[in-house]
Write a structure and sequence with these properties.
Layout lengths: L2 H4 L7 E3 L8 E3 L9 E4 L12 H6 L4 E4 L10 E4 L3 H12 L8 E6 L4 H14 L4 E4 L3 E3 L4 E3 L7 H13 L4 E5 L2 H5 L10 E4 L7 H4 L2 H16 L5 E5 L3 H9 L6 E5 L6 E9 L2 E8 L2 E7 L4 H16 L4 H7 L11 E2 L8 E5 L4 H13 L5 E5 L9 H12 L2 E4 L9 H9 L7 E3 L3 H11 L5 E5 L6 E4 L2 E4 L2 H28 L2
Parallel strand pairs: 2-3, 3-4, 4-5, 6-10, 6-11, 7-10, 11-12, 12-13, 13-14, 18-22, 19-20, 19-22, 20-21
Antiparallel strand pairs: 1-5, 7-8, 8-9, 14-15, 15-16, 17-18, 23-24
Bound molecules: ligand UAG, adenosine-5'-triphosphate, 2,6-diaminopimelic acid and magnesium ion.
The site of ligand UAG has 18 residues, from α6.
């Protein structure tokens, strides 16, 4: 492949050197540059890729794409572009022969619910025999081939590679989470979304976006992209205040579809019933009524379920079949995942709630199951939005009987300091601080009484604890199960010993 084959869609690059230069790979990391590679200089949050163009050339890169003109002594092929991230996306699309145009892309955005909704969509599409890939926080599924996820939404280069694999594996659609970071960094530039779903917008990622308005503007981009598609469908939760604002902005778009509990929603929910084993509710759409059953629990999963049904319908599935298929919805890893056995005296759930709103939702779900008490174990991630920490503590305090504050991926921060930040949100003295997460979980289990619900929040499916850049093995689900087993064994041994002692003459 020659450079000229890759730049057809690029907006007027200034080219130095021969466009007939052969290209074998693309990279935005100088450490991976080699002969035949095009190196893209990206301006990042930590460093500037433009500082590494010399290094990339030293390693044999055949061409450079940058937002600056080449230095005078440069003999290499150099493409001077306005925006290297957009150039990367456009050249990656061409490099992989435009897989994004061979699939029906369905994008899900919002602060909470993306992973769950994307999983459910993937389930519904495959159930309808529309082979579908999945990209999101938990896993990348390229049509039967599973890979660990690197990001919620990968960089454009990786994204196009994954879409290309989906095409090769016979996929016709892709259900993907679209993060605000990805939208802001042009990772999904050029993806012709046919369906976009907005779940909600609440506080998160203000370290990156600065204000809720800018966070919203980043999310809105997905809807601008979808609105430009001739068949674009914009599926928006109008029970959410930012969702209503979004729906207002697109009110004259023929593809606007709203959902929620309120009377104005196009997909309207009624009469929800929440049980430990699942949820049922009525779904009203254009004069038709359906009874939806799902094994997923809690009100927030009603929203995710409706969003996925509406999304699958918009993407070509039969509505009645989609509703029916919800009864076999998969357990979403680490999302209100029950880890205690059915016969347990108390119930233990692992959930990925890591925002104030996520916690309120997860804990009100637990409350609706009528427990004796709610015991919550939670922490706040290091190197992430500091402003959300006290709000998370407040959310937990308001919705729990016992709060156990611990560590959650301290990353490069001191876990004690993070706990101090969070602690400021508690208004009462009745909380416990246990910096070591395993001990915190054990404290909850040891203190549980009959009928209690323990929610271990924040890490969900994550199999690690990130401390100073090192990912140590740590899976809340495995740890909780191990501790439950150990506690049951110890209690059994004590009981046996007592029986033996009591039985002695
Ligand atoms: C803040 C952020 O989003 N950063 C992303 C961004 O990195 P960056 O541009 O800031 O990178 P940088 O370290 O400053 O380096 C700049 C450039 O120099 C290059 N470089 C650097 C060193 C060198 O020796 N040679 C070299 O070429 C780097 O490869 C890079 O191209 O671009 C990188 C490539 O795409 C991403 O991997 C990286 O994600 C980091 C790891 C990250 O943690 N991102 C999170 C916040 C994120 O994106 N999360 C969202 C989900 C959020 C949610 O909704 O919950 C996601 O979609 O995953
Ligand atoms: N629709 C929803 N509304 C509010 N809270 C939700 C919703 N769906 C899930 N949650 C809560 O948020 C947590 C994260 O859910 P999920 O992983 O589906 O969201 P996400 O948007 O993919 O999050 P992330 O951006 O971190 O990947 C869940 O564990 C649950 O506590
Ligand atoms: N996508 C989110 C996940 C947060 C998960 C939580 N365990 C944490 O580390 O804060 C983020 O990167 O901010
Ligand atoms: Mg996610």
């Amino acid at each position: 492949m020659k450079i000229r084959d890759l730049i057809k869609n690029l907006e007027k690059p200034v080219v130095s050197g021969s466009l007939d230069t052969e290209v074998e790979s693309l990279t935005y990391d100088s450490r991976k540059a080699k002969a035949g590679a095009v190196f893209f200089a990206l301006r990042g949050s930590k460093t500037d890729g433009h500082d590494f163009t010399g290094k990339a050339l030293e390693q044999g890169a055949s061409a450079i794409v940058a937002e600056t003109a080449p230095p005078d002594d440069c003999n290499a092929v150099w493409l001077h572009v306005k925006n290297s991230r957009i150039a990367l996306a456009e050249m990656a699309e061409a490099f992989y022969d435009h897989p994004e145009k061979k699939l029906k892309p369905v994008g899900v955005t919002g602060t909470n619910g993306k992973t769950t909704t994307a999983f459910l969509l993937h389930h519904l599409m495959n159930h309808a025999q529309i082979r579908c890939g999945l990209l999101g926080t938990v896993v990348f599924d390229t049509g039967g081939n599973l890979k660990p996820a690197t990001h919620t939404t990968p960089e454009s280069l990786e994204l196009q590679g994954l879409l290309s694999e989906m095409v090769q594996n016979g996929c016709r659609a892709v259900a993907m989470e679209v993060s605000s970071h990805a939208l802001h960094q042009h990772r999904v530039h050029g993806v012709p979304y046919e369906v976009a779903i907005f779940s909600n917008l609440t506080q998160d990622h203000l370290d990156y976006h600065g204000t809720m308005e800018d966070y919203f503007i980043a999310k809105m981009k997905l809807f601008e992209m979808t609105a430009a598609h001739p068949k674009g469908k914009l599926i928006i939760n109008i029970d959410d205040k930012w969702g209503r604002l979004l729906a207002d902005k697109f009110q004259s778009h023929p593809g606007l579809v709203t959902y929620g509990f309120g009377p104005l929603a196009n997909f309207r929910v009624g009469d929800p019933r929440y049980e430990l084993t699942g949820t049922t509710f009525e779904l009203h759409h254009k004069g038709r009524q359906f009874l939806v059953r799902t094994p997923l629990i809690g009100q927030f999963n009603v929203y995710n379920t409706v969003a996925a049904v509406a999304g699958a319908y918009a993407a070509g599935c039969n509505l009645r079949e989609a509703v029916r298929a919800m009864a076999q919805a998969p357990q979403i890893p680490g999302r209100m995942e029950r880890v205690s056995p059915d016969n347990s005296r108390f119930h233990v759930f692992v959930d990925y709630a890591h925002t104030p709103d996520g916690l309120v939702n997860a804990l009100s779900t637990a409350r609706a199951l009528r427990p004796s008490r709610i015991i919550t174990v939670f922490g706040c991630g290091g190197d992430r939005d500091r402003l959300k920490r006290p709000l998370m503590a407040k959310a937990v305090e308001d919705s729990s009987d016992v709060c156990i504050l611990t560590s959650d991926n301290p990353r490069t921060e001191d876990p004690q300091r993070i706990m101090e930040d969070a602690r400021k949100g508690f208004t009462r003295e009745s909380h416990v601080l246990v910096v070591e997460r395993k001990k915190a979980i054990d404290t909850a289990l040891q203190g549980a009484r009959d009928g209690d619900i323990i929610v271990i929040a924040g890490k969900g499916h994550e199999p690690y604890q990130d401390i100073q850049g090192v990912k140590h093995d740590f899976d809340d689900r495995k740890i909780a199960r191990q501790l439950l087993d150990r506690n049951t064994r110890i209690k059994g041994e004590i009981r046996l010993k007592k029986q033996q002692e009591g039985g002695r003459p």
